[in-house]
Design brief:
Elements: E1 7-10, H1 15-33, E2 43-44, H2 48-58, H3 61-64, E3 73-76, H4 86-105, E4 109-116, H5 121-134, E5 138-145, H6 149-154, H7 158-161, H8 164-174, E6 179-187, H9 189-197, H10 202-208, H11 213-217, E7 226-228, H12 232-242, H13 253-257
Antiparallel strand pairs: 1-3, 2-3, 4-6, 4-7, 5-6
Helix pairs in contact: 2-4
Length: 260
């Protein structure tokens, strides 16, 4: 096999079924476009065991794991022949042994932050907590806060911060009363919470799905009910900002140790 091949290590929630579905769609499209051999063929490892065996052939642990544990799925094209002496192969296997536990662990439990804006939590808290429980969120931190102008401004999206009038409107509302801050934990917590909240504009949220929280509880882009961390890096920043004393769950240590 003289042609070069591309070997990729991929990370995702539900990586194996997601990659399998993507490759099946790609194969169907390829078959419609061409009957020849000009388009590449793709293979993937189907189980954590196979992924682990193939990963240690092509990557060292330093290649795959930097700092914190990661979850990987291996995709590769037609394999070239590759040989190692028993000593070298065993050395690589020892360094990569911890990868197997990562592959079996599945999605990592993460934390995210939900801020329920003034006027919403005092009237809607029981229903909100019930919905969080149904969505399998675990509450690991909660406090009432009186936001100052600087803290309120820091929560605004970048595009809003470029509009002085919008910043003033948001900050006036966010500092008008007590907000309730919740630190929530579950696998894929950041995306799951953002999917639950919906778009910043309640009218757009209503058009997409009336069950979205901002569709239910929001009245305008300013008074839209909730703030949620938009990425994991932002979630780490937010948790450190609102819970500098730490959280009630030992499993949250990963978040507390992260540096943005």
């Amino acid at each position: 096999m003289s042609n070069p091949v591309l070997v990729c290590a991929l990370r995702a929630i539900d990586a194996f079924p997601a990659l399998r579905a993507a490759l099946e769609g790609w194969a169907q499209g390829r078959d419609r476009l061409s009957t020849g051999d000009s388009l590449p063929q793709a293979l993937m490892a189907l189980t954590p065991e196979v992924t682990f065996r193939q990963a240690i052939l092509f990557f060292t642990e330093a290649d795959l794991v930097t700092g914190k544990a990661r979850f990987y799925c291996l995709q590769h094209t037609k394999l070239t022949q590759i040989c190692f002496s028993p000593l070298v192969a065993e050395s690589w296997r020892c360094r990569a042994e911890s990868l197997f536990s990562y592959l079996q662990a599945g999605a990592q439990v993460l934390c995210t932050l939900l801020l329920i804006k003034p006027g919403v939590w005092s009237r809607r808290l029981p229903g909100i907590l019930r919905d969080l429980h149904l969505q399998k969120f675990r509450l690991v931190g909660m406090k009432h806060v009186e936001l100052g102008a600087a803290a309120a401004s820091a929560l605004l999206p970048r595009q809003v911060q470029q509009d002085p009038a919008a910043v003033e409107a948001h900050c006036t509302y966010l500092t008008s009363g007590t907000a309730l801050v919740l630190c929530l934990q579950r696998p894929n917590a950041v995306k799951k919470l953002m999917d639950l909240l919906g778009p910043e504009d309640p009218q757009l949220a209503q058009a997409l799905d009336p069950c979205l929280w901002r569709a239910q509880y929001g009245t305008s882009t300013v008074q839209n009910g909730f703030y949620g961390s938009r990425s994991y890096a932002v979630a780490v920043r937010d948790v450190k900002l609102f819970f500098p004393e730490g959280l009630c769950c030992a499993q949250c240590q990963t978040v507390q140790e992260q540096e943005v």
